[in-house]
From TrEMBL:
PANTHER family: DEGV DOMAIN-CONTAINING PROTEIN DR_1986-RELATED, FATTY ACID-BINDING PROTEIN TM_1468
Keywords attached to this entry: Lipid-binding
Stored InterPro entries: DegV (IPR003797), DegV_C (IPR043168), DegV_domain_contain (IPR050270)
Protein name: DegV family protein
Keyword Ribonucleoprotein: no
Amino acid sequence: MVRIITDSSSLYTVEEGRDTGIDSVPLSVSIGDCHGRDLQMDMPQFYKRIDEGQIPTSSQPPIGEVLDTYEKYRGEPIINISMADGLSGTYESACSARAMAKNKEDITVFNSRTLCGPHRYMVDQAHRMAGEGREKHEILKWLEEAARNTESFLIPQDFSFLKRGGRLTPVAAAIGSLLKLKPVVKLTEDGRKLDKFGVKRTMTAAVDSIIGHLKKKELGKNHLMFLSHAGAPEDAAAVKRRMAEIFPELEILILELGPAFVTQGGPRCLAIQYINR
């Protein structure tokens, strides 16, 4: 059977992954004198430290841990479904670990070109296909198609987190100086940067601008939407109600972001993502 490995961009904790039959290797996160792993830190304390002015940082999973995970499955085909290359060093680290592995010929590192909700869906479907006995090339073919049919939008509440992380196109970075406005950024098609999508005065207007774009995509039962938030469940619930009115056949799931992605998007940011089923 094909073994599926991923990182915490999929929002799978180590324990959840283990229970599902997936290996999820978490990113590393630091804030002040606190150093830990993504999805394993106390979130109220993490937000408290941010409120006190401490600036978090994140980095890719330890390469040795990725290597150990690969070598656990010697003699078996492996697909490591990584978060988008360019948004983190995670993909490159996964490739470096592969190059060092004794079973490297059995390992394929797949660049999902996305993160969070759609990334999780790719992992889930790849694992399901593996359980059905599908061959590695079949799973990779499906993953390639899935990666071409997803979009991600982010509405940050504090643009300084994104700007500090350096994952913006120059055009998107230029809107960071706008005050009391809601910038909306969109993941580029190659998944490597966040680009300007629009600037609105309110959260409602920002969401409506995304809805206007999504209407052209005719979202429905053949799509899955994820609303991923950073400590803003009320905002996510309100957007879900609005999306459900506009797209009644669309399944919409709410997820909570871990510290690695709060580090990039900032507290109370909201990601709106969809993927073809």
